[in-house]
Amino acid sequence: MATSTEKKKQTDRDLWRELTTRKEEFSKIVKLLVEFDEKTGRYLKYNHPETHYMRRAVAACDPENLRIFLKSLGGFVYSVVAEVKSAAGLTATAWVHEDGIREEREGCDTGHPVHQIVCVTDLFEADSQTIDVVHSCVSQPAADLLAERGE
């Protein structure tokens, strides 16, 4: 039988959360992934390569103009919706993020320096708050993506 803490975790996992602090850490993670994709040419193999440039905008955006929404899909996998505000307007993008850093940390805690890197799960657990998607001040593009990815 599940404890009340386990039930709360199960419930929280099904909800969207907004990253409220340390958005610059999230941007650093995305920047590393974007740079890797560019060095390897991996983004050219995406079904929609243009989404790579949206993630690039997330990596470059001032954290004050960035909103990040995360939903756990289980197993260190997250649905991500990012809203970027700039002088050119407001745009939103979405992707699935697999947190390989946390997965390694959990599976093989050797004290290796790579295990000290901030990962998306760290941010999800400590720096985000559950949101009510319906009543949050979310742009229409972000709201559409949140609803589409409601899983």
Structural features:
6 helices, five-stranded antiparallel sheet, globular, alpha+beta, 151 residues
Write the layout of secondary structure elements.
Elements: H1 4-13, E1 17-19, H2 23-40, H3 50-60, E2 66-74, E3 77-86, E4 89-98, H4 100-107, H5 120-126, E5 128-130, H6 140-148
Antiparallel strand pairs: 1-2, 1-5, 2-3, 3-4
Helix pairs in contact: 2-3
Rg of Cα set: 16 Å
Tell how many strands the DSSP assignment holds: 5
**Kindly state the mean pLDDT as a whole number?**
85
Morphology call? globular
SS-based class: alpha+beta
Count the domains: 1
Which spans have pLDDT < 50 for at least 5 consecutive residues? none
Q: Order of helices and strands, N to C?
A: HEHHEEEHHEH
Characterize the main sheet.
5 strands, antiparallel
Which quaternary structure do these chains form?
Answer: single chain
Strand order of the largest sheet: 4-3-2-1-5
Describe the structure.
The chain is α+β, with helices and mostly antiparallel strands. It has one domain (12-148). It has six helices and five strands; from the N terminus they run αβααβββααβα. The protein has helices at residues 4-13, 23-40, 50-60, 100-107, 120-126, 140-148; strands at residues 17-19, 66-74, 77-86, 89-98, 128-130. The protein has a five-stranded antiparallel sheet with strand order 4-3-2-1-5, sandwiched between helices. Helix 2 packs antiparallel against helix 3. The longest helix is centred in the N-terminal third of the chain and has 18 residues, at 23-40. The two termini are 26 Å apart.
